[in-house]
């Protein structure tokens, strides 16, 4: 199948689907100019941090508990990298697909908050959101547009406790609520599973795609490079998210 034929076939599936599970990763935000880092630390690749430790250690839950100033140093760098970037056409396209199909869900690994910013309904940010801060003592939370002006590490204005972003650091568990929502979605039945801009390295990201493929549910992967699920999906679009989703929406609008 040529890419054009695949786009036609995927558009037909999207048109018929009432409940779509859309799994997204860093590739989605690449069109917003963000690096497609692995997890939260790939900005650093294999290099050691300025503190002489691997980024996985600097950005671990244990480091945040014991030496929060170290973790915050790198969180601040990551946030500075995202600052000024905006959601792109892919985020808007996905928000529209979900709005038009209320049984659908977006399950994202991204911590940039772009899906939330464009008002995506039924969203699970499984790794959290960099802009959501939470007090480790009293649990009070607040949203911040960026980290400008924050004292590092920040203290809770109410109780003085350590404040951290509500993100999943290395070595920490995924939020149970998000996993349960995904499980309920799959248990209730899905018509289509789309994996968009993710390298599918985590089992909880690849798992639903493989599960759907085994159940005979149509699956689509949109990602420029090959991933562990590439050989399992029914349709594969080797291209950027904004481009592919734009082509699909055009077909929906044209009614063809
Ligand atoms: Zn507090």
From TrEMBL:
Residue ranges of domain Deacetylase sirtuin-type in the record: 1-255
Gene3D superfamilies (alphabetical): SIR2/SIRT2 'Small Domain, TPP-binding domain
Enzyme Commission code: 2.3.1.286
Top-level division of the source organism's lineage: Bacteria
Swiss-Prot/TrEMBL keywords: Metal-binding, NAD, Transferase, Zinc
MF term (GO), any: histone deacetylase activity, NAD-dependent
Pfam families: SIR2
SUPFAM superfamilies: DHS-like NAD/FAD-binding domain (SSF52467)
Active-site residue list: 127 (proton acceptor)
Positions that bind Zn(2+): 135, 138, 156, 159
PANTHER family noted in UniProt: NAD-DEPENDENT PROTEIN DEACYLASE, NAD-DEPENDENT PROTEIN DEACYLASE SIRTUIN-5, MITOCHONDRIAL-RELATED
The protein's name: protein acetyllysine N-acetyltransferase
